[in-house]
Design a protein that fits this description.
This protein is of the alpha+beta class. It is built from 14 helices and 19 strands. The longest helix is centred in the middle third of the chain and has 17 residues. Bound molecules: zinc ion.
Length: 528
């Protein structure tokens, strides 16, 4: 033993001059990157993205802007990335030098002041820009289980990050932990450490389900007939890193905390899934210093191994929301290429249309709507259909910034509530056979003459070219008839009927008029 102790001393002495490397937070700037002259008109962004990718810079959350100085991508870059953009000889305009300092200086209110919109009773405000710390999230999960043990499981670890922090999973169902063969859905947050709004969207929904279970028939029905799984923080190490560097919020660390061995830290865990991993260097970066570094191999990261093993461990998850921030988007596969659509593109589009009806988010195939991503969660959750069942998986990009004004913390979580409920519903009945409640069909004019969203009553008007039988009915998103407003002979011209929606659960519905061999469709929302 003495020799071993001596060896340890010698090793310690040898290591001493080389203090272990630590991740260092970088300043982040909001910038415009101008599309190079001569870029093809049809795909200007691709020319820019390829030029940047050649210098290891892969854009994330870029928005195209038409400026007086030409087409530009507005995005957020670390100092390392800014240097790469300049090295790529791309014209850069810095809009906000230090986004964290800007955020801290311009906040208008507190999380508590924004709770007026809340549809949950619980106070989930935290000290970090209005968001809970990681320990706060864990405590909130424990509180929820303690209050509602009949429908909320105790937290269970599905794995750990490099630093040993747990990925906590909670199930909500009528008999959590018991497999009754029910359809399953998954909700995740914080793949990216600087996106606390993704955690809040998940936690808020969990509280809503538990609080409403006894009194709300729609919620009771969902909880009784589903197994709903929640992993509010997929990347706990990165989340805690932001807490440590920026306890008041505004921390911009994105990746996990892998020591890449070259002085850089972190893998973008949402580029580490094994479906078309590393397909190209535009949708993820091979360079360890990049914010979108995909890691040394598919599933090299313990956080993503944890989710993979969870989904492959006998789960039947058929619907998944992977929450991110920001951009008001609902994205679906493929992320890795804009040149292919999934075989289920029609289903994704119908789901996207319905799921965004309340919050108005833009939906579409990720690689077309936003930018390329390979190794992302939704491509694997959908694309891998042998080791586990196919899941209709989405990326939801909540809100307007990584760290929104604290006064908006509740509102941004709340605006995703209906989509969360619908996703749970769709887990049991993907709307493959249901009529897509998408664009209005040609046919006789059909309009709402009262409020939409409807709280209690509204009016509906339709115009017939000739007298004859007309049928006007209301359907839920699964195509089930829930009300009949007119059914019989009607005169030519404008007909008006009243619609009392007070007996319907909140959600999205479809009005369908059939008359003279034609049909017309309009959507409406019932809110409380
Ligand atoms: Zn993200």
């Amino acid at each position: 033993m003495p020799s071993r102790a001596l060896l340890a001393l010698v090793l310690a002495a040898l290591a001493a001059p080389f203090a272990p490397a630590q991740p260092v937070p970088e300043r982040h700037s909001e910038v415009r990157l101008f599309v190079p002259d001569g870029a093809p008109v049809a795909r200007p962004g691709l020319a820019l993205a390829e030029r940047l990718a050649a210098h290891g810079l892969v854009l994330d959350h870029a928005r195209v802007e038409d400026t007086p100085h030409g087409l530009a991508f507005r995005t957020v870059l670390s100092e390392t990335e800014l240097a790469a953009a300049r090295a790529a000889d791309v014209e850069v305009e810095v809009l906000v030098e230090d986004v964290t300092a800007h955020y801290l200086a311009t906040r208008r209110g507190t999380c508590e002041e924004g709770m007026g919109v809340s549809r949950i009773a619980a106070d989930l405000c935290g000290p970090m820009g209005g968001y809970l710390t990681f320990d706060g999230v864990v405590a909130a999960l424990d509180t929820l289980h303690a209050r509602y043990p009949e429908v909320v499981s105790a937290r269970a670890s599905i794995g750990q990050g490099h630093e040993g922090r747990d990925l906590w999973m909670v199930e909500i169902s009528d008999h959590p932990g018991v497999d009754e063969g029910e359809p399953e859905a998954l909700y995740t947050g914080v793949h990216h450490a600087r996106e606390p709004g993704s955690m809040m969207a998940v936690l808020y929904f969990m509280y809503y389900l538990a609080e409403q279970y006894e009194t709300n028939p729609e919620v009771r029905d969902l909880v009784d007939e589903r197994r709903l799984f929640f992993v509010p923080v997929v990347n706990p190490d990165g989340y805690v890193f932001n807490e440590t560097t920026d306890p008041d919020g505004g921390g911009m660390w994105r990746k996990n905390l892998r020591d890449n061995g070259d002085g850089s830290f972190g893998v973008d865990v949402n580029r580490n899934y094994g479906y078309e991993w590393g397909y190209d260097d535009v949708g993820s970066s091979p360079l360890p210093g990049s914010e979108t570094y995909r890691g040394p191999a598919p599933f090299s990261e313990p956080e993503i191994v944890a989710l993979r093993d969870f989904l492959e461990g006998g789960r039947r998850v058929s619907m998944a929301f992977n929450y991110h921030t920001y951009s008001d988007l609902l994205l679906y596969p493929w992320g890795y290429t804009p040149d292919l659509q999934t075989p289920d593109d029609d289903v994704f589009a119908a789901l996207g249309d319905t799921l965004t009806h309340v919050n108005g988010y833009t939906y579409g195939q990720g690689s077309i709507t936003l930018y390329l991503t390979n190794g992302g969660a939704y491509d694997w959750m959908y694309g891998e259909q042998e080791t586990k069942p196919k899941a209709f998986a989405f990326t939801v990009e909540v809100g307007y910034w990584f760290w929104p004004d604290p006064i908006d913390v509740y509102a941004l979580a709340d605006e995703n509530l209906e989509a969360n409920l619908l996703l749970a519903r769709f887990a049991g009945a993907p709307p493959v056979a249901a009529e897509p409640p998408a664009s209005p069909l040609p046919g006789p004019p059909l309009e709402l003459t009262g409020p939409n969203p409807v709280r209690t009553r509204t009016g509906v008007a339709f115009t017939l070219a000739a007298p004859g039988p007309a049928r006007l009915a209301v359907y839920d998103v699964l195509g089930r008839e829930v009300a009949v407003l007119a059914d019989g002979p009607r005169s030519a011209g404008r007909n008006e009927v009243a619609f009392d929606a007070s007996g319907l659960a909140p959600g999205v519905y479809v009005l369908r008029l059939t008359a003279g061999g034609e049909a017309a469709v309009r959507r409406l929302t019932v809110a409380r």
